[in-house]
Amino acid sequence: MTVVQRTSGDMRLNPPLHVVFLDGAYHKGGTELVWNELGHLRTGEVGQVIEHAVGRMLRTLRRHGPLEIEHDVEEDDEPEAALCASAVSGREPPAGPQWLRGLSPSSPSALAYDKPLCAALDGFTLHAATRAGAHHAAVREALLRYVLRPPIAKERVEPQQDGLVRLSRRRAFADGTVAVGMDPLSLLCRLATSVPPPRFHTVKYAGVLASASPWRKRIGPRPAKPEEPTKADDDAAPKRKRGGYRPWAELLRRTFAIDVLECPACKGRMKLVAMVTEPTNVARFLSALGEPTDVPACSPNRGPPYWKSTVVRRKAPGDAA
Question: pTM for the whole thing?
Answer without folding.
Answer: 0.64
